[in-house]
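Per reviewer request, we include the raw input and output of the structure prediction for the construct analysed in the revised manuscript.
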Amino acid sequence: MVTVTESPGVVGAVETSDKVASHLHAVASFDLADHPMPHGREEVWRFTPLKRLRGALDDTPTHDDESGPAATYEVRAGDEVLLGTLAPGEEPRGRGLVPGDRAAAVASKNTEKALHVKVPADTLVAEPVHIIVQGGAGKRSNAHHVLEVGTHASVTFVVEHRGSGVHAGNVEVIVGDGANVSVVSLQDWDDDAVHVGQHEATIGRAASYRHVSISFGGDVVRLTSNVRYDGPGGQAEMLGLYFADAGQHLEHRLFVDHNEPKTRSNVDYKGALQGAGAHSVWVGDVLIRKVAEGIDTYESNRNLVLTDGCRADSIPNLEIETGEIVGAGHASTTGRFDDQQLFYLQSRGIHEDDARRLVVHGFFNDIIRKIGIPQIEEKLLATVEAELEKTV
């Protein structure tokens, strides 16, 4: 049996939701005491399988032992990129990211030295900057990465998560005025891994920011991705892909805070599910504040259910405090294969299994092609094909 929770989406409507309003009143704090251990009845935790987090929310320092480090971090970057570390409270750490839940607070508190990757002003970085996180089997790790990009600079970051263990990790992105920044976060964990954390971006005046979240691996992955603006004219594009297998829980929460006028945002997440107990959660919140006149925003989440026994929770929320906007809307769909598409392909001599593959590849392809990194795109196409081999 397929269990689906679906919101049909309302375009051009004004919705006031406690889920969105909660962002205005939620505790944003570095103090772990301000983020008590959740019990599962809180709105922001009600979908998360807390018993399967294996201590990810415990106040546990990263512990390296004689068998090896809890996690290793490798940065591949050119000479024009500056690398360093930041202690808690050391500028610019904390300028953009203040923990909004216990997972982020745990990661921040237990990271003594945050990785600091800085791109100076007016610098064009031609090749992507790769940050590779390798988790150790059976170990608990914490991380906080600060990606700082100066005014009118351009760079693409790829943050790749591999290996096993339990990982609490934050990514803080500071986008300078007029800069062009892309962050691709790839959750390619082993099947037993747990990953929680917060990604936060502050977008400067007339700057462009793209965040791509790709989740295929892991037992439980729960990421919160937030955007706010530090001046008018900023643009944000938030893209996501996920493929949940049997027993796997993939949860993505997003919050776009239009706190400046003439800003833009576009959110587009797509996911597929297969196997008994496969569960995806997508919660997209957009807040248009009273001062944010002339903004334009749209968010969309689409889920493709491939087998029985899956569950997709898809909840878009939109709160508008001013009528002086260009446009605002959201949409959410969850369903099986399009029978007409399958019939069309089969009527032209394509076998049913091959037709299903073509439909799924087409479902993901438009977002994959927007990533702009050929080696990542090719890897994702191969990963989708490998996942489909489990179905047909």
